[in-house]
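Below is a filled-in request sheet from our internal design queue. Each sheet records the structural input a requester submitted and the sequence that came back. We keep these sheets so that new team members can see what a complete request looks like end to end.

REQUESTER: design group, bay 2
PRIORITY: normal
MODE: inverse folding
CHAIN LENGTH: 102
BACKBONE (tokenized):
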């Protein structure tokens, strides 16, 4: 069982949170490009709000700038599967929990 803490994330809690629902798999993902996309979107959204642009334009501005990095992140993560949980990425940005029901 994983016993790691990163930035307030309790991985043991995530693994224990779903035992009643049936078999669950936890997959962690992330890379440098996803971190850049998150930070760029947030930074540009804040900057657009600082410029007093309407909120919809601020969101569009941040997401458009982050889109190329999100695409790179997606390509870098495309070979990962639900069976590939042997290691945590160095730049964790996503946790997926897959639960078999029924």
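RETURNED SEQUENCE:
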């Amino acid at each position: 069982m994983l016993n790691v803490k990163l930035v307030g994330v309790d991985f043991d809690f995530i693994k224990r949170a779903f035992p009643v629902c049936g078999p669950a798999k936890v997959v962690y993902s992330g890379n440098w490009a996803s971190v850049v996309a998150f930070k760029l979107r947030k930074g540009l959204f804040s900057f657009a709000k600082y410029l007093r642009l309407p909120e919809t334009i601020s969101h569009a501005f941040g997401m458009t700038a982050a889109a190329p990095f999100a695409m790179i992140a997606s390509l870098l993560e495309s070979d990962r599967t639900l069976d590939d949980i042997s290691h945590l990425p160095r730049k964790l940005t996503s946790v997926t929990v897959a639960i078999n029901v029924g």
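SHEET NOTES:
- Residues 22 and 85 are 18 Å apart (CA to CA).
- The helical segments are 11-16, 32-50, 55-77.
FILED BY: M.R.
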